[in-house]
Amino acid sequence: MTNKELADLLLPNVDSDLSKYEEKYPERNLKEGAIVTRFAPSPTGFVHMGSLFQSFISRKVANDTEGIFFLRVEDTDQKRLVENSVKGIVLDLKNFNIEIDEGMLSEEEEKGAYGPYMQSLRKDIYQSYVKYLIEQGKAYPCFCTAEEIEDTRLLQEKKKQRIGYYGRFAKCRKLTPDQIKEKVEKGEPYIIRFKSYGDFERRIKVNDLIKGNLEVPENDLDIVILKSDGLPTYHFAHLVDDHLMRTTHVIRGDEWLSSLPLHIQLFESMGYKPPKYAHISPIMKEENGVKRKLSKRKDPEAAVSYYHEKGIPVEAVKLYLMTLANTNFEQWYDCNKDKSLEDFTFDFKKMSSSGGLFDVEKLFNISRNYISRLKASEVYEGTVNWAKDYDSEFYEILKSHKDYATSVFNIEREQKKPRKDYGCYSEIKEQTWYMFKELFDKEEKDYAFQTISDKEEIKNILTAYMEKYYNENDTKEEWFDHMKDLAHEFGYAKEVKEYKENPDNYKGHIGDISLVLRIVLTTKSMTPDLYDIMHILGKDTILERYQNWIKEN
RNA sequence: GGCCCGUUGGUGAAGUGGUUCAACACACAUGCCUUUCACGCAUGCAUUCAUGGGUUCAAAUCCCGUACGGGUCACCA
Fold first, then answer.
1. Smallest CA–C1' separation from A326: which nucleotide?
2. What is the three-class DSSP state of A193?
3. Element (H, E) at A551
């Protein structure tokens, strides 16, 4: 029996003519140096930080070179499918403004000329390639049962030999055509394995864009390429898809590094040029002094939705990812504050080859700086969008007081050295609630008095301020002069310096007085500039809050 | 167990044989500035690059061993 007959026996209704695929999916007509990348998740749930990181880099590299970035769904493991996860993946990418040029848009829809982009829909294609390999004598059926495989493994372990289906352990490789025919006709179930021509003793050099040159043993494992359900394994789908989809750069997690010799051999056996590989180390997390992979189950920050919920601007997360991705980015950005991510060119060589620790603290710092440079109207937009999903009360308030809220967010903003109060949008309410009447009035108030805490003294200060010193039309200078006069009247130094020089002459200094006015107005001892706050709150609110406090105490 | 990768301060890290090589950033600490806070400014924070040996006039940088961490060895991706 020839290989051709064997192939027909095993895959009777499959066409092994590959030329039609080559014609249908031609070399991409892109400019010189354009990079084609992809994000290829299994639809088993939502996007993990590590995957987002990978797709972020892939998208970036494609952008930098005017290439293509596409989304392929790897659903060849039918047991692990989670309903609607394609939708979730698409949404997560969308939330981070990672656009795809081609690929899945939802559970059913896709765009692009190199599809289908859902592997389960590519069954025919894979089978054609499998049949072709059988005809070429480069693949063969395997009838081993799970038990048999397990037994060889045990034996190999016992004899301290390498584990796997290779060499003399590859029983079915030695089956004669007649034996195969007999088994098939008896109805014995089988899968298809790749007939490796590698030699473990031989070492080959492989290159990884991030890890550099590696020297590894050749692959000699006869891995499964077609499973009993007729779908391919990852390795084989990778070969077929990334060849046909004309991927130039495979960017993936470094758990794949050890199968790189296999993948290179697979491409070689078909006479295809393998893509370039970039294996990314996992993002780590430290807990109780132990470093481990960031885990979606244990770490809330591993889920991409966490950032959406916290209200960290997408752009800030990207800035952080870029500092992790390219170690020279941070300095570049520091020198080019007016530029954006798009102006920076990603470089594989500048990527750390070992896994970095995910530093939420640093992310918040980047976010804080980013928000501080935003315009008040942008902060307003961001906060409204966040509140819309996560805080309906705040959302309503913001919606009905747009200009007012914007002026609150504008305090000490849009200047050379803006305040850095907000690390994320979800923090804004707790920092500005006292500026909103609706929130202030309903709040159970806890006034944080410090140096001056005697209620009579406070009442007197408030009364004097309202009667003699407060004038809503004061400029900041006038306002401050009045504060000084108030301090003086009550025996407090007009200047902190004066007080420090002669502490015995005074009950305190102007800071103590302004603190009282600040606290009764806001309940807090730490706020942005008091003049700005008063200016925005307005006369009525100020008098109301002062009078109410006097009444209640 | 086999194979592969990694190890620079609390963190992210720069640096691949010698001209300040231990940058820069985050965090932390102290001080200054200031009506509070924040901002800003100043200063401090690894005599040492996991560890033991070797090569060299010279090593974080090259070589070998050890330890520790990670990955992989499925009809999962």
1. B13
2. strand
3. helix A539-552
ipTM: 0.87
Which sign, positive or negative, has the C-alpha torsion A291, A297, A298, A299? positive
Spatial separation of the C-alpha atoms in residues A220 and A137, rounded to whole Å: 16
CA–C1' A217–B3 (A): 8
Average the pLDDT over A93-97 and give the result: 90
Residue A195 pLDDT > 60: yes
Asked whether residue A74, judged by its CB, lies under 7 Å from any atom of the DNA or RNA strand B, the reply is yes
Residue A163: C-alpha distances to residues A147, A219, A394 (Å): 15, 13, 60
Q: Please name the nucleotide lying closest to A530, CA to C1'.
A: B35
Number of H helices, E strands in chain A: 24, 15
The answer to whether strand B lies under 7 Å from the CB of residue A495 is: yes
Give the pTM. Answer: 0.88
- The Å distance, CA of A396 to C1' of B62, is 66
Q: Which amino acid is at A359?
A: D
The position carrying tokens 């809050």 is: A545
Residue ranges of the alpha helices (H) in A465-537? 476-489, 496-501, 510-522, 530-537
Would you state the pLDDT for residue A262? Answer: 95
**Interatomic distance A362 CA / B26 C1' (Å):** 5
Among the listed residues A304, A245, A243, the one whose alpha carbon sits nearest the alpha carbon of residue A70? A245
